[in-house]
Write a structure and sequence with these properties.
This protein is α/β, with parallel strands linked by helices and about 375 residues long. The protein folds into two domains: about 5-115 and about 360-370, Enolase-like, domain 1; about 125-350, TIM Barrel (Alpha-Beta Barrel), CATH 3.20.20. The chain is about 40% helix and about 20% strand. It has 14 helices and 15 strands. The strands form four sheets. A seven-stranded parallel beta sheet has the order 7-8-9-10-11-12-13. The longest helix has 19 residues, at about 100-115.
Amino acid sequence: MKITHIETYPVTIPVKPERRMISALGQHTVSRYVLVRVLTDTGLEGAGEATVIPRWSGETVWGAQALIDRVLAPELIGQDPENIAEIDRLMDASSIHNWFAKSAIEMACWDLRGKAAGKPVFELLGGAVRPLATRSRYSMGAYEPERAQARARELVAAGFTTIKVKVGRDARADVERVRAVRAAIGPEIALTIDANCGWDVETAIDCVQQLADCQLALVEQPTPDGDYAALARVRRETGVPIMADDICFNLVHAQELVRNDCCDVISVYPGKQGGIRKAKQIVDFAAAHGVACSIGSNLELDVATAAMAHLVAACPNMQVEKYPGDMLGADYHEIRVAKNPVRIEGPITTISDQSGLGVEVDWQLARECRCE
């Protein structure tokens, strides 16, 4: 099997009003992503998705499309999509970083490999080690306290057992918001916070210590990107479990997290890591060093959500039972781009055992949602 064409579909998909995100990175009201279609000489085709947000990874929908069309695709035409390590090597040799753009092509190759074998991707990764239905936490924006309380009560009523609250903006308001949510949900629901690198180390330690009576189950990325010493210090001085996310894109970053005793958990997902294969490398490395992993999110559509769920299903160290992650992004959006969307009901995301990623993109709908 050889790659003959790689097509890109930049799309604009609004986020549902009640699920619009407010975080240390700003507001997210609309998603501008790139869907990728990899075609082959056998007639099989694979789908991928670049979940690009410039404030987060630095990638834009227009840059990702140009990179795929003008740099990556010319290197990959004629290559065997089933040789994913070689696909990765060629992409890395042609450009550095651009994690989400590369992941779109890579996950499409996994989709093709699964379809060619007549197997779901999780089988290609070693087989399912947990059910195909996964419970997620809910990631709630940095709302004003009254809105946060009302939303939290709705989420508990909808069956969520872990609520994540965005912080990292104004420290006083952050603390007030988290306290308001804890008061609304009671003591039995797990409560986590995510600063998205928005606090400095002193602020992070102070806020976490102020929130000691809120019984935080996890503190996600409280300190700036690249500052491993700061992350380690928050973990050491607060004693609260720490999740690393925005600071870890590749295996070297994971090695630094382990070397510096920075975290208890690493948030891993195919888009951020540059693909499923590289994500699994980090998960396996973390397992060998006694660090758990869980699934993170960039508000993915159906294709990338499926890729995430296959990784979770196949990797023992994706400890979503102990540290629930985020796989609800497709349901945050007003439009589903798949003819057979991933099933998301409240906190539960379920993938099928169909071959490949198990998602068929509606390419006509993708054209209609074109991002200009």
